[in-house]
Amino acid sequence: MTFHAKFSGYADPALHAAGLYIGGKWQSGSGITVLDPSTGNLLAEVADAAIEDAQRAVDAADAAAAGWRATPARQRSEILRRWYQLMTQHAEELATLIALENGKALADARGEVAYAAEFFRWYAEEATRIPGEFRHTPSGSHNILVDHEPIGIAVLITPWNFPAAMATRKIGPALAAGCTVILKPASETPLTAYAMARLGEEAGVPPGVVNVLTTSNPGGITNAMLADPRVRKLSFTGSTGVGRVLLAEAAKSVVSCSMELGGNAPFIVFDDAHLEAALDGAMIAKMRNAGEACTAANRFYVQAGIHDAFVAGLTARMKSLKIGPGYDSETQCGPMITQNAVRKIDRLVSEALAAGARATTGGKPLTENGYFYPPTVLENVPVNASIAREEIFGPVAPVYKFESDDEAIRLANNTEYGLAAYIYSRDLKRAMKVGKRIETGMLGINRGLMSDPAAPFGGVKQSGLGREGGVTGILEFMEPKYFAVDY
Ligand code: NAD
User: Fold this and answer.
1) Residues annotated as part of the active site
2) pTM for the structure as a whole
3) Residue 125: CA count within 13 A, CB half-sphere
4) Nearest CA to ligand 1 atom 18
5) What is the distance in A from the centroid of ligand 1 to the CA of 206?
């Protein structure tokens, strides 16, 4: 791995791990360029894994599997706990790396590191509480004993938008369960993954338990690993489109899949909402990571009586945000990840404007260097515009006016996605009644942020399969084994 000089002032060189990480060994290489999204300049170049590297990673994960599975839960827990502590100690360097390669504002990057480290702390605790069951059969013929065993080698694929948290949300439960893993981070943001692997090494993760591969051929590498009968789990976070392709590939060898996919979150504001609280929540739900979050509010449904005040308040707040490189400490809205991301946002906004929407702020990409799109509020957006159906993944808030509760529910559910939703109302009974009818895996009531390592994160419909985090997250990496016992 080579580094651009820009790094020297920003990140701790101790975290500059080199190349692929397989079987506890670092293998340097090149081929994948990492760009600074605020300038488009080269930040670093990392190794590009070939199919043989993926096979070696599966060999390494397999060689480590029996030992890791047999390691007492307390010991696995303590390694995860040390990893949590090291991430906390190196929080500032990790946040700077994330801000550099992903572009998000430092405040968001710091928030991500804290959230990411918490998955190691949470699963350090859960590792020692793996449940079992003992039951009597209804017929009385025998007893039912249920054990949970590690599922086997797990392939973990993560996106660029939370390069630390999406990795720890998978590695934490997998290691706690007793599985060995191969992590394939997004090639836009590999540096965070490698830095975390370095810290894992220091925390005492044995060679081969965690392997990390960056590649420009994610399909070929993943297919090769899924075809290997030793791989028993695929845990994927990314777009619904790639998720569908991977589900089909995993079906060929009947590999267990956990899928955290795209979202299209509705944010419903009722007339009786506390306006300032709803605006605060809207800014968090929309602007965390400049809108590049699967839980990001994608559609604002605002009841007629509060609509104009909400649009005015949101416009004022969005307009006041400072745009700039994530690593500048005053920045509140960083660049998008790529020029393509800016193009997609521009297409969605232009189509909405052509269909009658009005931008109260923003509405056009910025023309300076880097991949910037300004905070934008759209009103009078047609409910069937493509911006209401597709993930925007950027700092754009389309607002739609509604009249009745039934109309809000119908609009909210009019999507193939079902990851997150938000409701603002002072009437908790109303919020709960509406919430029960929204098709979603997660619902924020009078809150713009719901992610928590102790809660089950995941979606319904085409937003995914399974849950990460919480007490059930570890079971995604375990198989129940039933013993029928007759004394
Ligand atoms: P993406 O689907 O393009 O890529 C995700 C990962 O899959 C990357 O590591 C990529 O290299 C890899 N990949 C791409 N094609 C592949 C293939 N054929 N085989 C194997 N791997 C392949 O998504 P992205 O653009 O990196 O991330 C944004 C998407 O992720 C959004 O849709 C967002 O909603 C979703 N997301 C979901 C959650 C969640 O928890 N539900 C969290 C974060 C992001």
Assistant:
1) 260, 294
2) 0.97
3) 10
4) 219
5) 28
**C-alpha span between 190 and 212 (Å, rounded):** 9
Taking alpha carbons only, the member of 387, 203, 185, 397 closest to residue 285 is 397
Percent of the chain that is helix, strand, coil (3-state, to 5)? 45, 20, 35
Q: Which residues contact 168 (CB under 8 A, 6 or more apart)?
A: 87, 116, 117, 119, 120, 196
The pLDDT tens digits along the chain (487 residues) read 445 555 555 455 545 666 899 999 999 999 999 999 999 999 999 999 999 999 999 999 999 999 999 999 999 999 999 999 999 999 999 999 999 999 999 999 999 999 999 999 999 999 999 999 999 999 999 999 999 999 999 999 999 999 999 999 999 999 999 999 999 999 999 999 999 999 999 999 999 999 999 999 999 999 999 999 999 999 999 999 999 999 999 999 999 999 999 999 999 999 999 999 999 999 999 999 999 999 999 999 999 999 999 999 999 999 999 999 999 999 999 999 999 999 999 999 999 999 999 999 999 999 878 999 999 999 999 999 999 999 999 999 999 999 999 999 999 999 999 999 999 999 999 999 999 999 999 999 999 999 999 999 999 999 999 999 999 999 999 999 999 999 8
Return the sign of the alpha-carbon dihedral for residues 293, 82, 64, 190: positive
Cα–Cα distance measured from residue 447 to residue 375, given in angstroms and rounded to the nearest whole number: 21
Q: 394 CB under 6 A from ligand 1?
A: no
Phi then psi for residue 452, to 5 deg, are: -160, 130
Choice from 51, 160, 161 to test ligand 1 binding pocket (greatest atom count within 8 A of CB): 161
Give the domains, in start order, of the chain with CATH numbers.
Answer: 9-261+463-485 (3.40.605.10), 265-452 (3.40.309.10)
Tokens representing 200? 């894992």
Q: CB neighbours of 177 closer than 8 A, spacing ≥ 6?
A: 127, 130, 148, 150, 151, 474, 475, 477, 478
Q: How far is the CA of 7 from the centre of ligand 1 (A)?
A: 26
CA 228/CA 219 separation, integer angstroms: 14
Q: Is 464 in the pocket of ligand 1 (CB under 6 A)?
A: yes
Instruction: Tell me the one-letter amino acid at 106.
Output: L
Q: How far does the centroid of ligand 1 lie from the alpha carbon of residue 238, in Å? A: 2
